[in-house]
User: Which sequence fits this backbone?
């Protein structure tokens, strides 16, 4: 991507991540061949999504809200943005798919239980 600089941007501070995450970032960098900042930012976004239901923050105005990041990644076509997000976000996507499947099974069970309950209640209600 032409970033307006005549030189390469400085390396992204991947060492600032916990070592376990930094190691995975380096693995993804080797596999995807995308810019380090793109991959690290994808990890930040995915970690933020994973934590939103676990951590709340209190803003200076007193409002409490889930921890979150608003991230915009700009890159040229072919810079491996989608490939990176698919790899890094796969656990989130898999969890979402499993949750939807479980929800669909739960709805079927609920409807069956509700119908059985209504059938049992009919003689009692007269």
Assistant:
């Amino acid at each position: 991507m032409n970033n307006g600089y005549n030189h390469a941007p400085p390396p992204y501070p991947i060492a600032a991540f916990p070592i376990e995450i930094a190691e995975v970032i380096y693995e993804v960098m080797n596999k995807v061949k995308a810019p380090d900042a793109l991959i690290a930012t994808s990890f930040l976004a995915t970690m933020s999504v994973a934590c939103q239901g676990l951590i709340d923050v209190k803003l200076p105005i007193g409002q409490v809200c889930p921890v979150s990041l608003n991230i915009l990644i700009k890159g040229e076509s072919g810079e491996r943005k989608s490939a990176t997000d698919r790899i890094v976000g796969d656990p989130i996507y898999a969890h979402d798919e499993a949750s939807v499947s479980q929800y669909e099974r739960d709805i079927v069970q609920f409807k069956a239980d509700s119908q059985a309950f209504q059938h049992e209640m009919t003689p009692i209600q007269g």
The chain is about 60% helix and 5% strand. Residues 14-125 form one domain. The mean pLDDT is 88. The radius of gyration is 23 Å.
